[in-house]
Every structure is written in C-alpha cells, then in structure tokens.
Design goal:
Elements lengths: L7 E5 L4 H12 L3 E5 L13 H13 L4 E3 L6 H15 L4 E3 L15 H29 L2 E6 L2 H5 L5 H20 L5 E8 L24 H7 L9 E5 L2 E4 L17 H12 L10 H16 L1
Parallel strand pairs: 1-2, 1-4, 2-3, 4-5, 5-6, 6-7
Antiparallel strand pairs: 7-8
Protein name: SDR family NAD(P)-dependent oxidoreductase
Organism: Ferrimonas lipolytica
GO molecular function: oxidoreductase activity
C-alpha cells in the first residue's frame, strides 16, 4: 500500500524544504519522482538550478533515477512540456503534489494588491493549471491522486499572511469541489496543511522548537494521501508528529419566526449559538499552534 514501486509522482517546489523531503520519501519507496523547482528567492524572483541538481544527486544515491526540471510553475507551456515528456517516458502519472508556493508576510492586510495577485498566481492558479494538464491522463488511466497545499492561516487567521491565506483558501475550496466531481472515479483529490519550520516560515519568527517541527514529520501524511488507500476530499493537517483533519463546522442554529426577523434577534440567536458546546474553535493561527505544541510537549513528557 505504501510501496510506490514503478509509480510516477510529480512534485512541484521539490528543490528545498518540504518538497525535497517529499521527493526523498517517495523515491525511497521506489517511486519515479519528477521534481520541479525553479530555485527562486523568497519573493519569487530569480532562478537557481542547483537545488534540483542537488536533489537529483541525493535520489540517485538511493538507487533511483529521478527526472528533474528547473522550471517556473506559472509557465503553463513549460508545465505542459514536462507532463508530456513524463507521460511519453513512463506512460503513466500516478500522483501530483502541488507543493510550490510563496508565503510573503505583509505589514497590513490591504497594503498591496500585487502581492495578492502574486500569491494567487503561484500558489493557486499554477496548481489548478497543472491539475488541468494532469487530470485527463489520470482519467484515461482510471486512477490517480492529486494533492494541493493549504494553510493553517486560512483556517485560523494571521494578520501577517492575508495574501498567503487567501491563496490557500482558494486551494482548499477548489479541492473540496473537485473531490466531489471525482467521487465516481478512482481518482482522489486532497489537501495537506503542513506546519513545519522552513526558510519561508522563518520570516514569521514563530516561537516554537525547530527540532520538533521538521519537514519529515509532515511527509508521512503526504505518503498516505498519495497512496492507493487515499481518501477523497480530505484536508489533513500535519506537523511535529501531530495529525488531524480540518473541516468547516457549523453549530446548531435556531430558526426565527417570520415575524421576528430583526437584527437584534439575529444577534441574540447567533450569540447563543456561538456559546454552544462541543465544537473547539481557535481565535487565530497562533493560538491554534500553541494548542498543538502544548499537546506535543505533553505527549513527549
């Protein structure tokens, strides 16, 4: 089930951090990894093929021959060419992991519309475009798995990450809808919501133990979500060895009489509903992370 011998797994953002960890994890389990990364700076500028070259050397040391491409995921023509070459070579694409992305902190939520466009182009539109290229080949084969990347800031908020959170929310909503479309097929689409220290998260100055929040403690969730036993339409969180499922929740509401549809009554009802028990909520991404880290430390004590 978790042996990927002969399977072809395409991974974007594979040159460093979490993407590199994914690539090594799948290669060590026999997958033919197709790694894509343009080696850009934190702001998305520049190109450096050395990261993909280093990854290829590491995978070859495992005893597997990977395919590596220094390419920009927003270049649809380049992505089409890579997928076509991959399919011509292997005759199959079993999995697509859309991991490439930017996370640029902001001082104010509305300080730059261009920053929103950049996040959407790299984090969301590029993922959707790549899925559009790959999905028909999976449909022809009658099987496949697609994994998009979400964000905890989309779920719980972070005043520094509004553009990033918006792009991840788009991913999460897209996959929820696509998964419903794929229900009758043998193709699964899911979201992974990682929490790990990286060169990107270092910009946030989060107060946690970097030795706990490592990429290799996210990879097991990706291996499951890309396996033949994968669920469909799931949003799985992973970080530090703590795994959970993120879902939209709605508390039990009340119906107001037709003659009582007034704002003060709505306020009364929703205040009462919001104070109801049985649903755990978090006021922010930071509070949620503090809760998770507390559980991790208790588990390790």
């Amino acid at each position: 089930m978790y042996n990927f011998d002969g399977q072809v797994i395409v991974i974007t953002g594979a040159g460093r951090g979490l993407g590199r960890t994914y690539a090594l994890a799948f290669a060590s389990r026999g997958a033919n990894v197709v790694a894509i990364d343009n080696g850009c700076e934190l702001d998305g500028s520049g190109t450096d093929p050395s990261f993909i070259d280093d990854l290829i050397d590491l995978i070859e040391d495992i005893g597997v021959t990977p395919d590596g491409y220094c390419a920009d995921v927003t270049d649809r023509q380049a992505m089409q060419q890579i997928i076509d070459e991959t399919y011509d070579k292997y005759g199959r694409i079993d999995g697509l992991i859309c991991n490439a992305g930017l996370m640029i902190p902001q001082e104010k939520s509305l300080d730059s519309l261009d920053l929103y466009r950049l996040h959407m182009e790299v984090n969301h539109f590029a993922s959707v475009a790549l899925a559009q290229i790959v999905l028909p080949k999976m449909q022809d084969a009658g099987q496949g798995r697609i994994l998009f990347t979400g964000g905890l800031s989309s779920l719980y908020g972070d005043e520094r990450l509004t553009a990033f959170a918006a792009s991840c929310s788009a991913n999460m909503g897209f996959v929820k809808c696509m998964a419903r479309e794929l229900e009758s097929s043998n193709i699964q689409a899911n979201v992974i919501i990682p929490a790990n220290f990286s060169r990107i998260s270092s910009l946030l100055s989060l107060d946690y133990d970097y030795e706990i929040m490592t990429p290799d403690l996210v990879a097991p969730a990706a291996l499951w979500l890309m396996s033949t036993n994968a669920p469909n339409g799931m949003m799985a969180t992973a970080g530090g060895g703590y795994y959970s499922i993120a879902e939209s929740i709605e508390k039990n509401g009340e119906t107001l009489d037709m003659g009582n549809q007034r704002p003060q009554e709505v306020a009364r009802v929703l205040t009462k509903v919001n104070s109801g028990a049985n649903n755990k909520t978090f006021v922010s991404f930071k509070v949620r992370m503090q809760f998770v880290l507390k559980q991790l430390m208790l588990k390790r004590s």
